[in-house]
Amino acid sequence: MLTDLLGFPPQVLFGQLLLGLINGAFYAVLSLGLAVIFGLLNIVNFAHGALYMLGAFAAWAMATYLGIGYWGALILAPLVVGAFGVLLERVLLRRLAGVDHLYGLLLTFGLALVIEGVFIKLFGASGQPYPAPSQLSGGVNLGFMFLPWYRGWVVVASLAVCLGTWFLFERTKIGAYLRAGTENPKLLQAFGVNVPLLTTLAYGYGVALAAFAGVLAAPINQVSPLMGSNLIIIVFAVVVIGGMGSIMGAVVTGLAMGVIEGLTRVFWPEASATVIFVVMAIVLVLRPAGLFGKAS
């Protein structure tokens, strides 16, 4: 009955919905990192895709050269790449505080090109395989489709990180300090709060989120120097739709755009590569600040 109604087996629809939800989980975590960095530091971080790639390569290097498995890399790789992000903020990005956003965008775009170029020189443009953990091998037959355990884990882990980040920045004292630091840093510093340290840690946390997404993606996609550049444009579109700097907007819009992309692959495959940008154009016309953003 459902096959006659749709014109194709329902497994195709559910399979694409699952794929869209998984892609949406990556979009959510990556756009969340971008939203944290822009909302708290006013930096359009175009290097985010390269840092996502660094997270995947850090996990691969830990397994290849140090014998550290997936679960250790899931914790250590974001910490290592986040520390690298802190170094970038202290050495380069801090010098652009208070100037036009365009300068930060150009600097981070240049950083992305340099990082990708170095890794292409070292490892080539072809991808490196990274195995999924043995504990998450196989899957479960749901009747209407087969769900691999690892892909289900990606969705659960992404949602947990997104909700934890939202709670940290919206419901804790540290989050209140960070929001206050973006609105009136001089007043907050007068109360004895180290505002530069907070902003540095916030940038490091946003970078760590990108690296975390990279580790999650490594067993699904081959670890390649170009894996970030293929994704960053879509992630920026997701951030614009949700509202620049909106944490909840990044999470909800990331998941929604992944599902919409999956449905489009079923009903209109030719438009699946552009549907997110069409949605972005419509949102910009009707609500320039984004669905969850605040008008400046």
Integer average pLDDT: 86
Q: How does CATH name the architecture?
A: Orthogonal Bundle
Instruction: Count the beta strands.
Output: 2
The portion of residues forming beta strands comes to: under 5%
Structural class: mainly alpha
Helix content: over 70%
CATH class, please? Mainly Alpha
Runs in which pLDDT lies below 50 for 5 or more consecutive residues are none
Helix-strand sequence = HHHHHEEHHHHHHH
Rg over alpha carbons: 20 Å
Distance between the termini: 51 Å
Shape from CA axes? globular
Number of domains: 1
Q: What is the third-level CATH name, the topology?
A: ABC transporter involved in vitamin B12 uptake, BtuC
Strands ordered across the widest β-sheet? 1-2
How would you characterize the largest beta sheet? 2 strands, antiparallel
